[in-house]
Write a structure and sequence with these properties.
Low-confidence stretches: none
Largest sheet: 6 strands, mixed
Distance between the termini: 51 Å
Bound molecules: adenosine-5'-triphosphate, magnesium ion
Radius of gyration: 19 Å
Order of helices and strands: EEEHEEHEHHHHHEHEHEEHHH
Helix content: 25-40%
Strand order of the largest sheet: 6-7-8-3-9-10
Mean pLDDT: 88
Structural class: alpha/beta
Strand content: 25-35%
Number of helices: 12
Shape: globular
């Protein structure tokens, strides 16, 4: 079991800066980012493409690619500084405390294994039942139709939207204390997106966990999240309770983002057009 300090916030990020080393030199992806998460927080992370949302999500589990380096600051999960953990401790923390739903769900699945086998392998180290009935229940939970059939398919045989739901089911099955979801519902149609988000939020809230939800869908963030963090060029330009950020945005960039959604038709309207 992973050691965490009682009473500490679930996540605390202090002054985090990170850069990618590229052929053309270093690219700053995060600059002096602070954030904290308490049980029950549903944090929406929004901001234009390239603003650092995925880099921050990955940094919460020290899952940055090799080309990305933390240049200053710290990430603590349950009061434990990730920089001080060895590989085994980090793996245990990812398994016991953190859940990730990646931006690329198909890429996160093993192409050589049927969906059923992947789910079973994910459940085994947790001591959770991995029989057919348990797997069907998992897939039912994310509204996959014909779950029996899907369990027998390989990742390349399912759609992007379905892969996303499988990735969500995999992450939720582990009942993480902090679920980090990077655009988890972008490929889903409006109704399923709404249902899957509702399900994620209910599970998170009832278990006293916290959600970090990276999204371009500001309407959905407003509807489901309790707090919002607005990022731009690697920095946090605004953070606060959802109603404050949406109702009384302080930063011109936030106002600009909000204006863009007021002018765009809702996804449901687009789909019905
Ligand atoms: N593998 C990489 N190599 C070099 N630079 C990268 C790499 N990944 C991201 N970056 C750069 O780091 C910065 C932050 O990128 P990041 O992917 O975190 O943004 P994002 O907010 O998740 O964007 P999106 O909304 O498009 O997913 C950007 O300037 C981006 O170009
Ligand atoms: Mg991203």
């Amino acid at each position: 079991m992973t050691a965490t300090t009682a009473g500490a916030p679930l996540v605390r990020v202090r002054g985090l800066s990170a850069e990618y080393l590229t052929r053309l030199g270093p690219v700053t992806a995060l600059h002096d980012v602070d954030m904290s998460l308490e049980p029950g927080d549903l944090l929406g992370v929004v901001g234009e493409s390239g603003s650092g949302k995925s880099t921050l999500s990955a940094a919460l589990g020290r899952m940055l690619p090799g080309s990305c380096h933390i240049t200053s600051g710290s990430v603590e999960v349950g009061g434990v500084d990730l920089a001080g953990l060895d590989r085994a401790a980090l793996r245990a923390l990812r398994r016991d405390v953190l859940g990730f739903i990646p931006q690329d769900p198909i890429g996160s699945l093993d192409p050589t294994l049927r969906i059923g086998r992947q789910l079973r392998l994910a459940l085994r180290p947790l001591g959770r039942p991995g029989d057919r009935a348990a797997l069907v229940t998992l897939l039912d939970g994310v509204q996959i139709r014909e779950p029996e059939r899907v369990l027998r398919l390989y990742p390349h045989e399912i759609s992007g939207g379905m892969a996303q739901r499988v990735a969500i089911a995999l992450a939720m099955a582990r009942e993480p204390r902090v679920l980090i979801a990077d655009e988890p519902t972008a490929a889903l149609d409006a109704q399923v997106r709404e249902d899957v988000l509702g399900l994620m939020v209910r599970l998170i809230t009832s278990s006293g966990a916290a959600l970090v939800w990276v999204s371009h869908d500001l309407r959905a963030v407003r509807r489901w999240c309790t707090r919002v963090m607005v990022m731009r060029k690697g920095e946090v330009v605004e953070e606060g309770p959802t109603e404050d950020v949406f109702g009384r945005p302080e930063h011109p960039y936030t106002r600009q983002l909000l204006k863009a959604i007021e002018m765009a038709p809702a996804a449901e309207e687009r789909e019905n057009a």
